[in-house]
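Colleagues,

For the teaching module next term, I've prepared a clean inverse folding example: a structure given as C-alpha cells, and then the sequence designed for it. I'd like students to try predicting residues themselves before seeing the answer, so please don't circulate the second half yet.
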C-alpha cells in the first residue's frame, strides 16, 4: 500500500506508467489481482454487455513467451521514426521527457517476461467494425484503467502497453484465444519500488479545450 490512503484526485493524477520501478522479485498475491479485477468490472460498457475477458498470466513460461514477443516489438519500435525518444527533438523541454520515456520503454522491453503478473484485457467480437469503433473499445478501456487505478491504490504499479499487438496472432496462439477474442493491451503488474509518484507534465489544457465549437 502507498504510505497513506490517496485521495481520489491524488490517485487519478499519480497513476503513472511504471516500468523501471516494477519490483520483479516480489510475488504478487492472486487475491490482490482479483480485488482489482472485481473493481474493474464496475466500469461502464455499451448496453451493459460486459463483453470483456481478462487473461492473467503468472506461469513463468507463458510470461516468458509473451515477454519475448514484446521484446521483439520494442526492438522494432525503438528502431522506428515514431519511437518516443525521437519525438519533439526541436523542443528541448519536451524532448528531455521523451528521451526518458524512450529509455524506460527499452528497459521494460528487456524485462516484460520477468514481471510477476501480466494482464491481457480482451473483448469478444465476431468481426471488428469497419467504421467507428468507439462503442467497441469504449466498452473495455474504462475497465482497464479502473484495474490500473485499483492496483495503484494497493501499492501495485502497472503500465499500459500495446506494442506486442504487432504479433497479435502469435500471442493469440500462445494464449489459446478463440478467433472471436481480441486483445486490447498488455498490462505488466507488480509491486512498485517506493510508492511516491507525481503528477506528470502535460501540454496545457488551453491547447486542447474547445468551448461550444472547434
Ligand atoms: C494506448 C496506449 C499505448 C501505450 N503503449 C505503450 C507500450 O507499448 N509500451 C510502453 O512502454 N508504454 C506504452 N504506453 C504508455 C505511454 O508511453 C505513457 O502513458 C506516456 O508516456 C505518459 O506517461 P504516464 O502514463 O506515466 O503519464 C501506452 C499508453 C497508451 C495510452
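(Answer key — instructors only)
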Amino acid at each position: 500500500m502507498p504510505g497513506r490512503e490517496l485521495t481520489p484526485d491524488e490517485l487519478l493524477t499519480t497513476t503513472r506508467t511504471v516500468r523501471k520501478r516494477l519490483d520483479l522479485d516480489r510475488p504478487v498475491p492472486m487475491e490482490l489481482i482479483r480485488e482489482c479485477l472485481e473493481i474493474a468490472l464496475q466500469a461502464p460498457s455499451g448496453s451493459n454487455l460486459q463483453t470483456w475477458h481478462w487473461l492473467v498470466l503468472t506461469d513463468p513460461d507463458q510470461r516468458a513467451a509473451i515477454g519475448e514477443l514484446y521484446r521483439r516489438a520494442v526492438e522494432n519500435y525503438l528502431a522506428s521514426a515514431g519511437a518516443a525518444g525521437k519525438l519533439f527533438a526541436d523542443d528541448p523541454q519536451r524532448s528531455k521527457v521523451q528521451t526518458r520515456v524512450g529509455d524506460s520503454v527499452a528497459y521494460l522491453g528487456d524485462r516484460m517476461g520477468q514481471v510477476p503478473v501480466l494482464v491481457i484485457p480482451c473483448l469478444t467480437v465476431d468481426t471488428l467494425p469497419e467504421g467507428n469503433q468507439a462503442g467497441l473499445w469504449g466498452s473495455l478501456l474504462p475497465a482497464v484503467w479502473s484495474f490500473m487505478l485499483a492496483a495503484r491504490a494497493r501499492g501495485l504499479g502497472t503500465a499500459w502497453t500495446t506494442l506486442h499487438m504487432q504479433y497479435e496472432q502469435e500471442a493469440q496462439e500462445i494464449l489459446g484465444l478463440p478467433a472471436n477474442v481480441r486483445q486490447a493491451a498488455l498490462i505488466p503488474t507488480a509491486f512498485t519500488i517506493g510508492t511516491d509518484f507525481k503528477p506528470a507534465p502535460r501540454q496545457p489544457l488551453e491547447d486542447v479545450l474547445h468551448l461550444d465549437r472547434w
